[in-house]
Amino acid sequence: MWTHSPARLLALSVTIAALGPVTASAQDRVRVTSPDGRNQVTIEIRDGALAYSVDRDGRAVLLPSRLGFAFQGAPPLHDGLRIVDTSRSTFDETWTQPWGEVARVRDHHNEVRVSVAEVAAPGRRFVVAFRVFNDGVGFRYELPEQPGLGEFAITDELTEFTLEDDARAWWIPSNRPRLDRSEMLFSSSPVSVLDSVQTPLTMETRDGRTFIVIHEATLVDYARMFLAGPRMQSRTLRAALAPYADGIKVRGRTPFVTPWRTIQLADRATDLAPSLLGLNLNPPSVIQNTSWIKPMKYVGIWWGMHIGTMTWSSGPKHGATTANTKRYIDFAAANGLGGVLVEGWNVGWDGDWIQNRNAFSFTTAYPDYDLAEVARYAHAKGVKLIVHNETSGGIENYERQMDSAFALYHSLGLDAIKSGYVTDFVGEGHSHYGQYMVRHHRRVIEKAAQYGIMLDVHEPIHDAGERRTYPNMMSREGARGQEYNAWSAEGGNPPEHETILFFTRMLDGPMDFTPGIFDILIERGTGRPRRPDEPRPRTTLAKQLALYVVLYSPLQMAADLPENYEHQPAFQFIRDVAVDWDTTRVIAGKIGDYVIVARREKNSPSWYIGAITDEEGRTFDIPLTFLTPGRKYVAEIYADGPGANWLTNPLPVAISQRPVDATSHLHLVLAPGGGQAIRIRPAR
Predict the structure, then answer these.
(1) Which positions are catalytic?
(2) Domain end position, chosen among 445, 478, 511
(3) How far is CA 437 from CA 176, 269, 461, 555, in A?
(4) Domain limits at 192?
(5) Prior bond to 255 cis, omega within 30?
(6) Does residue 348 share a domain with residue 244?
(7) Total-model pTM
(8) Nearest Cα to 484, choosing from 542, 430, 536?
(9) Are 249 and 350 members of one domain?
């Protein structure tokens, strides 16, 4: 079990009170509140079962919800229980991230640990620890070493979340085919009609007074948690763990701790982001020197494959050639972009590469790609080469090669990998999200840290805050990104898509969405204009710029072909925009409708604003009170141009400048499906 150790914390200030446990006598009901007193958790024995409930401002958010486990070959551990001990502590520190949406994070919570035992034999015991923050609640189970519980196999985690209100939820399913990559469009409905959904699950109460997000943190040696929908039109969501092929959910041995189950709470949608609850529930960084971990923008041999002008496989249109990669490196160096991603460089892509998962070599390049020469050339140009490792779910094949591959990359000065897991099942039929894969991803993160390598993972396990402990775990996909705008049967992502992502998927961590497509109207592989019903980015060009600010990632791709940025004045915003932030302010937002975000660049006085809308055109007047009073600035504005519309006229961009200060307001006009990107720099 991890405990706070000031020597291990990247802390600016630490104030600790009552860290020593205060033992209380056994009781049937225990309460703990957040430091501001608004959130209260009650833990109690009800009809022999352990349950918890959550109130906010004296109003119920979660009604009594049961806790416990079902085991293979043993009785379930959830009935006939009694509370045998409690202890309390308070913690308050401010720690600094090496990179992130904000530079400094305050961890201020009250904790209660409730020890529970069966009344009858075999008298098994467990602890549930609750940490209550001003922005929500985290709780986890701890199974101590004991005679009645050694090795175990969990068939179900019996955790419940019983909503007091039939809140509106934004969700993607977790029980349909092709769930390996979470790449589905979001739906919304009342909680009472949900089936089985993925987390983070964002909900708004019917009166609009409370927003609730259920997720998890510190997912290390366990299965990913989905939420099974209510039975008989109730409002009780149940933990549903991703299984092994034999149906077992988790295998372990005591002592054992589960991930934290998190319940984020906010008064407004705009208060949900940036979400820091999960980070505070993860241990501090184990990487002492993080100076080599550097956020960056990059370009890549990637979009050409999706639009059909290049191929991953060898042949006449092979994208990953030495000459083509050097062209991309030259473009990155000339435009101040930090890296170049190369996909399709290594042997294994010919034929059905999803079926040929064990054919991939992560050290052997195709004959027309000289890895050592390209690495040398990139280094000479001051550009990082991002190595692509697609596994297709061949986990054993990848793990056999990891040491030799990572050692090779390290020897060539390559310190960034984009990995992929395009598959539905892994191993002998295990879930893409089960304990088998959670363990694998942790091995990859640790091995990459050993070799000084940053990671960008596609088709991943969702983010549970690992980036605090291993800040080399930079970004991941885990949602429906830009690539669907090249070829999806639906014609692309609808204009509302990113306004939903911001309040759902983005609450668990950075996303490699790959914004920046400028050639919006050209059909894949033909060069002719696309029809409106064919796949293409359903945005304006200005919205593509705004996504660099709205959808956070420390690794941000300029996703289009280099030639499509030539002679484009709007490309200057991509050159300028930051990827690492000191401060984030969500100015306005409504889930599925619009988002306006302001972020201050780390170690800089410059601010950036991104505003996006759905299919409706919108106008906003936003105050700039976040600017330093008395200081003069210049706003460089990239707005939707005259007549811009995502459907009929997506390309016009109006670029302008105006002086601003902390007393100024900006009038934002967003076209249907449009956006606006603004850089605010100190006046020279």
Answers:
(1) 483
(2) 478
(3) 19, 32, 8, 24
(4) 6-280
(5) yes
(6) no
(7) 0.95
(8) 536
(9) no
In a domain, 583, yes or no: no
Token pair 């064990």 in the structure block, residue: 358
Find the length of the chain: 684
Q: Establish if 493 belongs to a structural domain.
A: no
Query: What CA–CA distance (Å, rounded) separates 590 from 273?
Result: 12
CATH of the domain at 240: 2.70.98.10
Instruction: Assign residue 326 a region (left: φ > 0; alpha: ψ between -120 and 50; beta: otherwise).
Output: alpha
DSSP string, 327-391: HHHHHHHHTT--EEEE-S-BTT-SS-TTTTTTS--SSPBPTT--HHHHHHHHHHTT-EEEEEEE-
Domain count, the chain: 2
Burial of 538 (0-12, 13-18, 19+ CB in 10 A): buried
Tokens standing for residue 457? 């993972």
Q: How far is CA 75 from CA 118, 149, 159, 246, in A?
A: 11, 11, 16, 19
Residue 527: partners with Cβ closer than 8 Å, 6 or more residues away: none
Mean pLDDT of 194-206: 97
Report pLDDT digits (tens) over 461-488.
999 999 999 999 999 999 999 999 999 9
Asked if 383 and 340 count as a contact pair (C-beta separation under 8 A), the reply is: yes
| Closest to 217 (Cα-Cα) out of 291, 284, 139, 119 | 139
Q: Does the pLDDT at position 12 exceed 60?
A: no
Amino acid at 573: F
C-alpha torsion sign, points 190, 160, 505, 241: negative
Peptide bond into 460 cis (omega under 30): no
User: Does 272 lie in the same domain as 317?
Assistant: no
Q: What share of the chain is helix, strand, coil (3-state, %, to 5)?
A: 15, 35, 45
pLDDT at 249: 98
CA neighbor of 604 nearest in space, from 636, 570, 579: 579
Tokens 């640990």, residue located:
113
Residue 649 has pLDDT above 70, yes or no: yes
Residue that terminates a domain, selected from 280, 304, 321: 280
Q: What angle do CA 231, 235, 241 make, to 5 degrees?
A: 65
